[in-house]
Design a protein that fits this description.
Elements (H helix, E strand, L loop, with lengths): L1 H7 L3 H22 L7 H27 L10 H14 L6 H41 L1
Helix pairs in contact: 2-5, 3-5
Length: 139
């Protein structure tokens, strides 16, 4: 029984880290929505590019982890089949398998890239508003 518990908790730390990333992204979204966060367009574009590139790298890891669902060559004996099943479970097990956690991580990286773009839009909107206000004040 302890062995099953250890298997189930194998990615608990990754799940907790992922939740921290989600929480941070939600906080950033709140700041953007409230008008409290804007970014220089070039800095936002550069940051979004990095997060999208990293999401692409994670996509490759997802493919690798997904391939672990089927582990050939462990034999027809019950112990080999059980071991293959454990690999499959670690690779994809609802929301706690390696591939599943990587998918969620990739999605959060893409979300962060989108948040940077939203912050850029806030900056541009504020910049345009200030320019309009200055023009009206000069008239």
């Amino acid at each position: 029984m302890a062995e099953q518990s250890a298997d189930a908790s194998g990615f608990v730390g990754a799940g907790a880290a992922l939740q921290s990333i989600r929480d941070e992204n939600s906080w950033i979204q709140q700041q953007i929505s409230g008008g409290g966060l804007s970014m220089d367009p070039q800095a936002a574009d550069d940051a979004a590019k990095v997060y999208r590139r990293e999401a692409d790298v994670v996509e490759e890891l997802i493919l690798s982890a997904t391939s672990l669902q089927q582990v050939p060559g462990l034999g027809a004996y019950r112990s080999g089949q059980q071991l293959a099943a454990k690999f499959g479970q670690k690779a994809s097990n609802g929301s706690t398998g390696a591939a599943d956690l990587l998918r969620q991580f990739r999605d959060e990286l893409r979300r962060k890239a989108n948040l940077f773009e939203q912050a850029k839009e806030n900056y541009q909107a504020t910049d345009e508003q200030v320019a309009d206000d200055l023009r009206r004040g000069a008239e």
